[in-house]
Design a protein that fits this description.
By secondary structure, the chain is mostly helical. It is built from three helices and no strands.
Length: 74
């Protein structure tokens, strides 16, 4: 992880209460639970989208070897 940076936001009071209760139940700091939740959200969103350089390599490969891929599929 990089350096820590403070930021402020607003969240539903019931959601925040649940988050605080979870942190207390697990014996963790609220910031650790929030950071974990953010990391999981970002990872989940990234999994659905391939990286640009991977897609570029796939497209280049397909353009170059399309006839071979077609034969292999048959």
């Amino acid at each position: 992880m990089g350096t820590r940076e403070k930021f402020a936001t607003q969240v539903d009071s019931d959601l925040l209460a649940d988050l605080r209760a979870l942190a207390k139940e697990e014996g963790r700091q609220l910031q650790a639970v929030v950071e974990e939740a953010i990391e999981q959200l970002l990872e989940q969103r990234r999994q659905g989208k391939p990286r640009a350089h991977v897609m570029a390599a796939h497209q280049a490969s397909h353009a170059r070897f399309a006839p071979l891929y077609k034969k292999l599929a048959e």
